[in-house]
Design a protein that fits this description.
By secondary structure, the chain is of the alpha+beta class. The chain is 16% helix and 28% strand. It has a domain of 66 residues. The chain is built from two helices and four strands, in the order E-H-E-H-E-E.
Length: 95
């Protein structure tokens, strides 16, 4: 009986890729429209690993030190505040 070829795609086994939990960075710029001349803005990042989410949050908050928790945090902006939080990404099929 010949040995099975590990590259044989018809061998009946499917390649699995398991990703750890993913997180979304939620940014909410709350500003005074009449004062700044622009509306409030909200952004949700694509799902990413926790360390990448923390790095993005630190960048958005102008922090040089790493962030150790998931927030929420805020910092002043001209005419308002920026609110940043890290939340678990929804689980489900991509598509």
């Amino acid at each position: 009986m010949p040995a099975s070829d590990p590259l044989d795609v018809d061998a009946g086994e499917q390649l699995e890729l398991t990703l750890g939990p993913l997180y979304v960075v939620v940014i909410d710029d709350r500003v005074s429209g009449p004062l700044t001349g622009r509306p409030p803005r909200r952004y949700r990042s694509p799902p990413q690993p926790l360390e990448d989410a923390r790095c993005l949050a630190a960048l958005l908050l102008d922090r040089s030190a790493p962030i150790a928790d998931d927030g929420p945090w805020w910092r002043p902006l001209p005419g308002g505040q920026r609110h940043v939080a890290i939340v678990a990404a929804p689980v489900g099929p991509i598509g």
